[in-house]
């Protein structure tokens, strides 16, 4: 970090350093700093900065622009109140009288005086609450009228940058324009001595780091709540099935997974169903399951091989071959028929030699050889043989005809037809048997139940084979030529894959049964049940994946909201540009308040985004707080010194309000405080509430010495309530002679008016008595101001001996003052007679008494004129014998 460059002012140096630091930060953080440069952040700022962290710049409703040094150069400017002008329209504040307007001096020092319990604290509490004092007391309404607690309200007129602004203040709703006003009183004093606290105001805009840390903390809180909300949503149960450790881990880390990994995690197919069913059955009855698997493997294997063999027979050429065989036989039969048509043309019955006849012949032949004439050739040709059909003895003609028939049948054409017919018959019997065998090839029930797809493939191929066999038989029987049925997809290889899985299950289960490891079966079944259940809740898992991905992004943003580096940089910058100045200012204020011998010092220590000021004991043995050691008066003086030191370092000329700042201070230190208040009033508006009359007089003296405008307001209890603004600007004891003479004249006029309206009545008596009381006090004040030229004054801790040069007190003055005091004592200091009318002076007498007072003042001033010059000459070394010669 760059140290203070002598060629720049502190504000410029700090602005340059902050701009250089900001340029190294990401744009979202620069935007966050922009939000807090001139104001406290709002909820919208928190949301916007969070959006800038999470979204792409082009997706934001505002532009992210880099900060420049000019942004920081004016960071400490803003709506700072130059003066507090008026407090009015007060509502629900203690028992303060309504409808009043407390108008303050807009420059210099305003002192608001009043006795205890007249309402000063009510107005002070308004300012403490409105201006954000360190210990802002609670404000309650008039508890003697209504128990209901409603917010306190008031109108505060300010001058801000030269413009008068009315702030409609309500308790609980702070206004930033009021926070520049600093308040000090008995309850805030401990914050400057006993408690570790931040500076009330850090100059040069350096408080931006503390406010930036606060904004980022709120952003972290906001983002953290979003993550918590996501985690809460993701904490609900996804499925009914208990999750495995692997599934729990995956779901915990799902935010770091891509979509493919999630879809793979959710994958589930029929094979998984088969495995789950197998595992479930194996868990309940492992031996029974093993037997079922063994039977299924054996049955499927046998039937699959048989089906494969039959499919090979029923290839695409099988139908063609059957059709060709039928055609060959038909051709042979036709040739034999032609031969027969020539051989039997003269036979008595038609159709001899044809197919029907041939069938009859062959049947007769089988009967003759098998039963009628066994072991003899057909037809029987011996004498006495009978016809196997009509069973009549064969005549010669019949025997000859049968011989002709035999010769025909045994002829070449007939022999060929018989051979082809026998081949067709054999082929047909083969395919008929194949068709019958196909009907018995059934899929094992376990396969049908657990592998329905594979069972369907097997059944489709078996059905196709049966239909193909039927087509072949039709071709062999009738020569029908229909399109060949294609083999279905997929092929039987898919069934063999299932057979392989069944064999694997059988082998694995056999191993587990042999080793007695049933727990492994249960564990695997649990894994598959969990996977299937999660697949059923796939949409919920995908939603959780999206939310956790969002939470991962938010968490990454959270990690960027750290404030350590900001705090370190801001703390270092504040130490370099504030801490030393603060310590020097505190030392200066200690000296001004004459507490330089009190063993305390003001030090600074880093805190988040800023610096804490700490008042500690110098050279103390052990860790002992200053508040424990200091006397009550020292405590108040040290706290006031710290308060004024902060004001000096801030560099701002904002108003300050002090309520009873000299409580517990001795008369000497009160005068120092009065002097410091006058000094502050040179550069800023100062408002002081006090009930301390000597302190009021000290303030008047100090303001007079500094030529500071002084506004005095006196509060008293009135008919309408407390805090009533008096017609008098100060108590009679605090008023100067010029003010008193004016007031005495007003009292004389008021008494005259009462006398004219009612004569000697009670009101006139009261008015005259007040006049005489104040007249007597004025003659006493004459001694202080005129006779003794303020050399000695009540309530002032010192004697101004140099003023004795102007003092004149001779017999004439003595007699004039004695007559005045005697006249003023007529109605004061003694019990008066009951007859008021006979003892009261007339209004004209009152005017005479005022004139007597003025005449005495003229007498004093005439006699004291030039006496100071003469006495100075008497004291001059050039006239050493002047006094002696006069004697």
Entry keywords:
single chain, 887 residues, alpha/beta, 4-stranded antiparallel beta sheet
Shape, per Cα inertia axes:
rod-shaped
Overall pLDDT confidence = 81
Q: How many distinct beta strands?
A: 13
Sequence stretches where pLDDT stays below 50 over 5 or more residues: 1-7, 833-838, 881-887
Tell me about the largest β-sheet: 6 strands, mixed
Strand fraction equals 5-15%
Rg over CA atoms, rounded to whole Å, is 62 Å
Number of helices: 32
Instruction: State the secondary-structure class.
Output: alpha/beta
Query: What is the topology, as strand order, of the major beta sheet?
Result: 6-10-11-3-12-13
Helix-residue proportion: 55-70%
Q: Report, as a whole number of angstroms, the end-to-end distance.
A: 79 Å
Structure description:
This protein is of the alpha/beta class and 887 residues long. 58% of the residues lie in helices and 9% in strands. The protein has 32 helices and 13 strands. The chain has a 6-stranded mixed beta sheet with strand order 6-10-11-3-12-13, sandwiched between helices. The protein has a 4-stranded antiparallel beta sheet with strand order 2-1-4-5, with helices on one face. β10 (656-659), α24 (667-683) and β11 form a beta-alpha-beta unit. The longest helix has 29 residues, at 564-592. The protein is rod-shaped and about 215 Å long. The two termini are 79 Å apart.
Furnish the topology, listing elements before pairings.
Layout: H1 10-23, H2 27-36, H3 43-54, H4 69-73, E1 81-91, E2 101-103, E3 109-113, H5 120-131, E4 153-160, E5 163-170, E6 182-184, H6 189-193, E7 197-198, H7 208-233, H8 245-252, H9 259-266, H10 270-284, H11 286-313, H12 318-343, H13 355-372, H14 396-409, H15 412-439, H16 445-450, H17 452-478, H18 493-515, H19 518-536, H20 538-559, H21 564-592, E8 600-607, E9 610-617, H22 626-629, H23 632-650, E10 656-659, H24 667-683, E11 686-690, H25 693-706, E12 710-718, E13 721-725, H26 737-758, H27 762-787, H28 811-824, H29 836-839, H30 843-864, H31 867-875, H32 882-886
Parallel strand pairs: 3-11, 3-12, 6-10, 10-11
Antiparallel strand pairs: 1-2, 1-4, 4-5, 7-9, 8-9, 12-13
Helix pairs in contact: 2-3, 3-7, 7-20, 7-21, 10-11, 10-19, 11-17, 11-18, 12-15, 12-17, 15-17, 21-23, 24-25, 26-27, 26-30, 27-28, 27-30, 28-30
